[in-house]
């Protein structure tokens, strides 16, 4: 039985800007995410973090984060479920995972977080940097996660300016929540809008959607006020896309939240995916609109690297499938957890960045 040390040093400061949304299909939801990093990640701005694809078997013993964030206040645990995820370092803390029960969980930055105090009356104390692998290895549904966090688990740890998280959890039963800790108190939001990014708190983003209610998909018709001028009737719409005028174009968390929500909602309303493959195409197209290239996000004094989209993922809870691609290789790769041969109590790692570009030369096939 292998002890799995959940090291957090490299991920602290990494998950700076991330986007989550889901797409509904007849075969279940497609759960998406982008992972960005920057700031105090301890590598040069030109070198990606050493992301690994981790396959972790049931029965693995997890050694809790013993860094200054949690030290002696948290506990170890033994995993119950096989799961696959992406983490960083030789013994990675996972920023992203799905288990064989179809439970999906991902970590995003939320700088306004403040966690609970350790409980000495029988509650399990889990370091906030360990919460993702704890959920992925311990629970089969959103309902189980919610019940545990409300009744038997305290999420503890002393945050620093670059180690604040909240979590999106989605299952195959069409349930989705956002987990946040505000002023030391647990907040579980029923994520009916199926979007999450980063700061501020989730309820701010819900209110902010109301500021863009003019966005629609109709062709503009201004005949009631039109005037015949020397260039013809004005105003009138003469090109496509005006209906999305004013939709945010920057890559801040509030703007990515608004953009992802309106694009996915209107696309599904007007041309709903009729298959899983169509859902994956739609999810990929919207992921592309929140993709962050290198060198465009301003760095505050002291930062050592630019935020950019290190990797993107799709998860299909109904089928326990995990898709992933990197900044350099935009070809989707997939693991079917129902077919993968996990080893009880053991884990294995493969480098996410394989050195390939994903480009296929088809000259000889023409």
3D structure, described in words:
With 366 residues, this protein is an alpha+beta fold. Helices cover 16% and strands 28% of the residues. It has five helices and 21 strands. The chain has helices at 131-138, 142-151, 202-208, 253-270, 276-289; strands spanning 3-5, 20-23, 30-37, 51-56, 61-63, 77-78, 83-88, 93-99, 104-109, 124-127, 153-156, 165-170, 176-182, 185-190, 195-196, 227-229, 232-234, 308-316, 321-326, 333-336, 347-351. The strands form five sheets. An eight-stranded antiparallel sheet has the order 14-13-12-9-8-7-4-21, covered by helices on one side. The protein has a six-stranded antiparallel sheet with strand order 15-2-3-18-19-20. The longest helix is centred in the last third of the chain and has 18 residues, at 253-270. The protein is globular.
Mean pLDDT rating: 88
- The geometry reads as globular
Q: Give the class from helix and strand content and strand pairing.
A: alpha+beta
SSE run: EEEEEEEEEEHHEEEEEHEEHHEEEE
Helical content stands at: 10-25%
Contiguous runs where pLDDT drops below 50 for at least 5 residues: 6-14
Strand order of the largest sheet: 14-13-12-9-8-7-4-21
